[in-house]
């Protein structure tokens, strides 16, 4: 992610992302639907696993590389 960008608000991975609201606390669900502060909810959800993101096609999945953070080898 480029520095200074807000994940899933001003920046998204090339494959996009799918919100996983069932995986975040109720207060974050409300926060993500509130105007003006929803961008910070997206950043919180990004850091805490609230989005499903497909890896780029030229990169193997984390399981294949043995990585636990999804960055690869």
Summarize the helices and strands and which ones pair or pack.
Layout lengths: L17 E2 L6 H6 L6 H10 L3 E2 L9 H4 L8
Antiparallel strand pairs: 1-2
Description:
The chain is built from three helices and two strands. With 73 residues, it is mainly alpha-helical.
Summarize the structure.
The protein is mainly alpha-helical and 73 residues long. The protein has helices spanning 26-31, 38-47, 62-65, and strands spanning 18-19, 51-52.
Shape: globular
Rg (CA only): 13 Å
Structural class by helix and strand composition: mainly alpha
Oligomer: single chain
Order of helices and strands: EHHEH
Biggest sheet strand line-up? 1-2
Give start-end ranges of low-pLDDT stretches.
Answer: none
Number of helices: 3
Query: Quick one: how many beta strands?
Result: 2
Key phrases:
single chain, mainly alpha, two-stranded antiparallel ribbon, 73 residues, 27% helix, 2 strands
């Amino acid at each position: 992610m480029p520095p200074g960008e807000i994940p899933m608000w001003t920046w998204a991975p090339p494959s996009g992302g799918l919100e996983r609201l069932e995986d975040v606390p109720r207060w974050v669900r409300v926060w993500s639907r509130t105007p003006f502060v929803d961008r910070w909810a997206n950043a919180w959800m990004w850091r805490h696993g609230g989005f499903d993101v497909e890896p780029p096609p030229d990169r193997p999945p984390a399981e294949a590389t043995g990585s636990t953070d999804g960055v690869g080898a």
